[in-house]
């Protein structure tokens, strides 16, 4: 199918930057009036569109018309991140048109663009995915999204191949540019799973094979892990890499990073658990392994105090860690990573909680040694040499 070019001469209704083309957002015009076809919509844009909207390609039963070059950044998805990084395709729904033919033509345009830009099925999205707007509303109302996606598959690739956990991990590490506010888009893209839910919160609510846990000791590598974010209705999802590390979208910085739970990206978040399925698709080979299912009996070797405590069957809450820190002589515990590491090392080293220092020698014996000059001169040096508290030194200092 040929895409007729009728480009808008100015870029008044675009962001003006270069679109990196991370995928395509499918819309319907929502305009059922007679004559509201592709030509009419293209003319609206070239004749100085008065609406605060712009889009790349309009498709009806007869033709596809391009109004902006693919690399322009149009206003269509109700979301700046999507607008600046996606192509927009509008399907006409005019009552004097043939909707089914327009539907097939639009899928053909998307198929061509998938080949041209190397997009997978996961890169084909609905307007709904980015703003929650009911668009493309007829496709959604008639439950035809999978049918549409099937029609966009390049020849010989009719089925979508979902990545395995290890493939998802490998792919995640190739991603460095952030998906602002779109943690679910990042994680489902790791698995090459298509769009379905508008937020991590909705995807977690809909998952059928959930495993509730607050410790990475119980999570297999390559699992989607969900977090509650207080005060944020979208919540968060990240990909677990194993060894206490996650590959995660970092919205605040616009990057994708590898981080452990003590990283600021997880600040205030509370782990809900992980799922074997995402957006209605079961991830192949992602099941709770025997070793992940059970506490490891202290054989945990990672760097997380939380995971370590879980692995030895201890409460890993902040209150519990603070209490342990006190027992191990770590002053003013506030959960910093240095304190966590110190506590982990102390507990792992098998050292006992610091007991009240007890001199192993009697006061009289120490006093004799001090007098004999065995601990040098000066009170500070002597006390240090004896390894006792100031109070105890007072008791044995030469009288
Ligand atoms: Zn739309």
Mean residue pLDDT: 86
> What kind of oligomer do you see?
single chain
End-to-end gap? 104 Å
Strand order of the largest sheet: 1-4-3-5-2-6
| Mass-distribution shape | elongated
Order of helices and strands: EEHEEHEHEHHHHHHEEEEEEEEHHHHHHH
* C-alpha Rg (nearest Å): 31 Å
Give the DSSP E fraction (strand runs of 2 or more residues).
15-25%
- Strand-pairing-aware structural class: alpha/beta
Highest-level CATH class of the largest domain: Alpha Beta
CATH superfamily of the largest domain: Peptidoglycan recognition protein-like
Profile the largest sheet: 6 strands, mixed
CATH topology of the largest domain: Lysozyme-like
Number of domains: 4
Unreliable segments of 5+ consecutive residues: 290-297
Q: Count of helices?
A: 16
User: In which range does the helix fraction lie?
Assistant: 25-40%
Tell me what you see in this structure:
This protein has 399 residues and is of the alpha/beta class. It folds into four domains: 3-151, 3-Layer(aba) Sandwich (Lysozyme-like); 165-293, endopeptidase domain like (from Nostoc punctiforme) (endopeptidase fold (from Nostoc punctiforme), Alpha-Beta Complex), CATH 3.90.1720; 305-348, no CATH class; 363-396, no CATH class. It has 16 helices and 14 strands. The strands form three sheets. Strands 1-4-3-5-2-6 form a six-stranded mixed sheet. Strands 7-12-8-9-10-11 form a six-stranded antiparallel sheet, with helices on one face. Strands 13-14 form a two-stranded antiparallel sheet. A hairpin with a 2-residue loop joins strand 9 (236-242) and strand 10. Helix 7 (165-172) crosses helix 8 (183-190). Residues 290-297 have low confidence and may be disordered. Zinc ion binds next to loops. Zinc ion is lined by residues 27, 127, 133, 135.
């Amino acid at each position: 199918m040929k895409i007729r070019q009728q480009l808008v001469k100015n870029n008044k209704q675009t962001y003006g930057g270069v679109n990196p083309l991370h995928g395509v957002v499918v819309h319907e015009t929502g305009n059922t009036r007679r004559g509201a076809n592709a030509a009419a919509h293209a003319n609206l844009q070239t004749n100085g569109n008065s609406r605060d909207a712009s889009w790349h390609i309009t498709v009806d039963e007869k033709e596809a018309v391009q109004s902006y070059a693919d690399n322009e950044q149009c206003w269509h998805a109700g979301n700046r991140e999507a607008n600046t990084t996606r192509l927009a395709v509008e399907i006409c729904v005019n009552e004097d048109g043939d909707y089914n033919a327009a539907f097939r033509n639009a899928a053909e345009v998307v198929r061509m663009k998938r080949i041209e830009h190397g997009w997978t099925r996961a890169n084909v999205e609905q307007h709904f995915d980015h703003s929650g707007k009911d668009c493309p509303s007829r496709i959604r109302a008639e439950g035809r999204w999978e049918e549409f996606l099937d029609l966009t598959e390049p020849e010989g690739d009719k089925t979508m191949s979902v990545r395995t956990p290890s493939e998802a991990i490998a792919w995640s590490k190739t991603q460095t540019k952030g998906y602002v506010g779109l943690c679910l888009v990042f994680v489902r893209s790791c698995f090459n799973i298509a769009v379905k839910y508008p937020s991590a919160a909705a995807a977690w609510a809909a998952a059928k094979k959930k495993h509730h846990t607050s410790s990475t000791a119980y999570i297999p590598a390559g699992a989607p892990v969900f977090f509650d974010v207080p005060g944020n209705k979208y919540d968060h999802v990240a990909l677990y890499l194993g060894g206490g590390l996650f590959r995660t979208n970092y919205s605040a910085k616009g990057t994708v990073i590898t981080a452990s739970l003590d990283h600021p990206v997880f600040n205030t978040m509370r782990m809900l658990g992980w799922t074997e399925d995402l957006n209605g698709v079961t991830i192949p080979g992602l099941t709770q392994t025997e070793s992940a299912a059970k506490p490891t009996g202290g054989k945990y070797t990672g760097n997380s105090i939380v995971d370590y405590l879980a692995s030895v069957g201890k409460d890993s809450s902040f209150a519990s860690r603070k209490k342990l820190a006190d027992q191990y002589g770590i002053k003013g515990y506030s959960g910093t990573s240095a304190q966590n590491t110190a506590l982990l090392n102390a507990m792992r080293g098998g050292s006992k909680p610091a007991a009240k220092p007890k001199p192993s020698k009697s006061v009289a014996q120490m006093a004799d040694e001090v007098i004999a000059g065995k601990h040098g001169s000066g009170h500070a040096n002597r006390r240090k040499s004896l390894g006792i508290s100031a109070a105890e030194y007072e008791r044995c200092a030469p009288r």
